From TrEMBL:
Catalysed reactions, as listed in the record: L-aspartate + 2-oxoglutarate = oxaloacetate + L-glutamate
Listed name of the protein: Aspartate aminotransferase
Species of the source: Iphiclides podalirius
Enzyme Commission number: 2.6.1.1
NCBIfam families on file: PRK09257.1
């Protein structure tokens, strides 16, 4: 007798995790992992932030902490601190009771809870995401009930910059009440963010077309080392009077990848709408995972609420962002020194964990096969995978790949 499950077909692998496993299994001495979006120190090792270690020890010694259920919407102290960090503690919308947070399963959980809420209760069915974007955005929104996935132009491979005219044109053609997914900072995968003036034009079009902003803030503080600078776009939209939601993640800026610490910040124009929205968000979460885990949220809430710990944490994110900037400079410097064809200035103009290198799929595959340098086939690399011990090796390999397999389009003269 056959199995009922014979109808289940083999699903495609998730590229970033598949490549990460290939890297782990690779026995080549000089292998390099530029795939998964996680911070690595100058020795290529994962780094637990010292303030995280210290706070965890304090928590372990605190016998008043129990393993009881959190409320469905999570730890209030954590969500309040998260909203305050995102919007600025003196933001009028907080004082007026028009902003609140919901603890979620990291940024992905925030996206999922927010998307399901917008689909189920505001009846929104169309969402736009940048081309390209983080590969999980499409899946999360479609699984949340959105039936009209669309893209807006973002990356121009010829200039290795934002196709801003294309972006604006696509937003102008978006139907009213479309949800527009926006990266708060450190756009994934390109590493290129709009300027303040460009954000203002984006807001103009969205206001005119009655579009709904859904921000994804995965790198606040981690991108530039400055919490306020990385939250500028979200705060600007709030100042303009937009209602919006924003998924926040503490995976990168606290190094809490596996603790799944996240928040969904919600900003409304009328405080009377908050209670009904919270009541319905409670049912969204109840039917999804019932309530969130406590450990990571307690840790983040403790750090954000203690001035001394908060300052210590800010020094850590500055250290991480500075190392990323140094590695960008080092990679470009090596490529220039090697006389690698093309202009590589875009590597240092980009921000955050990733660089959209402009390498073609053929060049990327060559790097994997010949040099054991693992990167996504789109040419996206995690800059943190570079360190003083391997950046010269990586640059020489890129030089070989670019020389052996020239790109079809003309390299920009910047």
């Amino acid at each position: 007798m056959g199995s009922r499950f014979e109808v289940v077909q083999q699903g495609p692998p998730i590229e970033v995790f598949q490549l990460n496993k290939l890297f782990i299994d690779d026995t080549f001495k000089n292998k390099v992992n530029l795939t998964i979006g996680a911070y690595r120190d100058e020795n290529g090792k994962p780094w637990v932030l010292p303030v995280v270690r210290k706070t965890e020890k304090q928590m372990a010694a605190d016998e008043s902490l129990l393993h009881e259920y959190l409320p469905v919407l999570g730890l209030e102290q954590f969500s309040a601190a998260s909203v305050s960090m995102l919007l600025g503690e003196d933001n009028p919308v907080i004082a007026e009771g028009r902003a609140f947070g919901v603890q979620t399963l990291s940024g992905t959980g925030g996206l999922r809870v927010g998307a399901e809420f917008l689909n189920k209760h505001l009846k929104y069915t169309t969402f736009y995401y940048s081309s390209p974007t983080w590969e999980n955005h499409h899946l999360v929104f479609v699984n949340s009930g959105f039936t009209q996935p669309r893209t807006y132009r973002y990356w121009d491979p010829k200039t290795r910059a934002i196709d801003f005219e294309g972006l604006i044109e696509d937003l102008k053609n978006a139907p009213e009440n479309s949800v527009i997914l926006l990266h708060a900072c450190a756009h994934n995968p390109t590493g290129i963010d709009p300027t303040h003036e460009q954000w203002e034009k984006i807001a103009d079009v969205m206001e005119e077309r009655k579009l709904f902003p859904f921000f994804d803030s995965a790198y606040q503080g981690f991108a530039s080392g400055d919490l306020d600078r990385d939250a500028w776009a979200v705060r600007y939209f709030v100042e303009r009077g937009f209602e919006l939601v924003c998924a926040q993640s503490y995976a990168k800026n606290f190094g809490l990848y596996n603790e799944r610490v996240g928040n969904l910040a919600v900003v409304m124009s009328d405080a009377r709408c908050v209670a009904p929205a919270k009541s319905q968000l409670t049912w969204v979460v109840r039917g999804m995972y019932s309530n969130p885990p406590a450990h990571g949220a307690r840790l983040v809430a403790t750090v954000l609420s203690d001035a001394r710990l908060f300052d210590e944490w800010r020094s850590h994110i500055k250290e991480m962002s500075s190392r990323v900037i140094q590695m960008r400079e080092a990679l470009r410097s090596e490529l220039v020194k090697n006389g690698t064809p093309g202009n590589w200035d875009h590597i240092v103009k980009q921000i955050g964990l990733f660089s959209y290198t402009g390498l073609t799929q053929r060049q990327s595959e060559y790097l994997i096969q010949e040099y054991h340098i693992y990167l996504l086939r789109t040419g996206r690399i995690n800059i943190c995978g570079l360190n003083p011990g391997n950046v010269e090796y990586v640059a020489k390999a890129i030089h070989d790949a670019v020389t052996k397999f020239p790109a079809e389009h003309t390299w920009p003269k910047l």
